[in-house]
């Protein structure tokens, strides 16, 4: 068993949850979402660090430092997901297991939202499940770390 120390990186416009289209994103605020994620993490005996920025360079720098602060990542880069290749490259540098989460069902929306620059680097992608998607992401990461720890001990 290994302890999950996950960094949740919310990207552009995620600070505006509560004001954004509730049909896609629900009506809760970002701090409510973070409270829910913290509870999910506590159920798994894990710890969470939250970050949010509207500046792509800052998001990249948070990824540069991620491996010093945690052992797993959950990314919802917002609209950057669909075109920000610098985020792809920075994620690759972290060497950490990552899960991509979207509150809305991106594949059922406009065509430009169907492509993600980070999916190929993630152990899983969860979309369209609202806050519950973050629970699944935490479970995936916990299983991944537990399995890696077992393999290292064998
Ligand atoms: C989002 C989906 C993106 O297409 C959008 O630009 C967002 C949020 C989601 O959580 O559903 O800002 O990542």
Describe the model.
This protein has 154 residues and is an alpha/beta fold. The chain has helices at 22-25, 30-43, 56-64, 66-69, 85-94, 132-153, and strands at 5-10, 47-52, 72-76, 98-102, 124-127. It has a single domain (5-153), classed as Dehydroquinase, class II (Rossmann fold, 3-Layer(aba) Sandwich). Helix content is 41%, strand content 17%. A five-stranded parallel beta sheet has the order 2-1-3-4-5. α3 runs parallel beside α5 (85-94). Bound molecules: 1,3,4-trihydroxy-5-OXO-cyclohexanecarboxylic acid. 1,3,4-trihydroxy-5-OXO-cyclohexanecarboxylic acid (DQA) binds next to loops. 1,3,4-trihydroxy-5-OXO-cyclohexanecarboxylic acid (DQA) is lined by residues 13, 76, 78-79, 81, 102-104, 106, 113.
Describe the protein's topology:
Elements: E1 5-10, H1 22-25, H2 30-43, E2 47-52, H3 56-64, H4 66-69, E3 72-76, H5 85-94, E4 98-102, E5 124-127, H6 132-153
Parallel strand pairs: 1-2, 1-3, 3-4, 4-5
């Amino acid at each position: 068993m290994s302890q999950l120390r996950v960094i949740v990186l919310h990207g552009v416009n995620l600070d505006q949850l509560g004001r954004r289209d509730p049909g896609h994103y629900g009506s809760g605020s970002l701090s409510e979402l973070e409270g829910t994620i913290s509870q999910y993490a506590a159920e798994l005996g894990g710890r969470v660090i939250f970050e949010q920025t509207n500046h792509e360079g800052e998001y990249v720098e948070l990824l540069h430092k991620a491996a010093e602060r945690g052992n797993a990542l959950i990314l919802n880069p917002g609209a950057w997901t669909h075109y920000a290749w610098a985020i792809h490259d920075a994620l690759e540098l972290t060497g950490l297991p990552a899960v991509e989460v979207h509150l809305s069902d991106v594949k059922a929306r406009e065509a430009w939202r169907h492509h993600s620059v980070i999916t190929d680097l993630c152990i899983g992608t969860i979309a369209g499940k609202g806050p519950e998607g973050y629970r699944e992401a935490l479970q995936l990461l916990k299983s991944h770390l537990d399995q890696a720890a077992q393999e290292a001990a064998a």
